[in-house]
Amino acid sequence: MPRYVALLRGVSPMNARMSALRACFEGAGFTNVTTLLSSGNVVFDAPRRSDATLARQAEAAMAETLGRSFRTFIRLQSQLRALLDADPFQAFNLPPGAKRVVTFLDAVPVPPTVLPIAKAEARILAMRDREVLTAYVPAPGTPVFMALIAKTFGDATTTRTWDTLRRCATA
Question: Are residues 63 and 32 part of one domain?
Fold first, then answer.
């Protein structure tokens, strides 16, 4: 049975307990459910279905159990491992201390987004299918990279650090 990763948008310890999210996913019929960190990362097994179908199932279970749902982005765990193994960030000359993040989309933008895009110390470098590769150098103040991602791709996204993806790919 395939192993999937659900990346939920907008989850924090203030608005959802991980134990409650795990119960929602189990209630939706998913098995071997694990939550990671406190930011809406759920790894589970399910019969092969489309990402959209699994996301709808998870969102419906959250709405029923929690009284609210979080936008859900589904990827096969093997897809995340392949992305990590390919390490596409190596192709870019990143400055020392640069942080690597991946933003997940439901679909490839039409028309395609012309990349790279840079603002201050943030750069949207490339897209791989429905994943956007961004690097930034941490600086005090507003997270410029998040504003750049939102301006470019809208709010129908969720973003994870490279290190979080490593954890999701091996859970």
Answer: yes
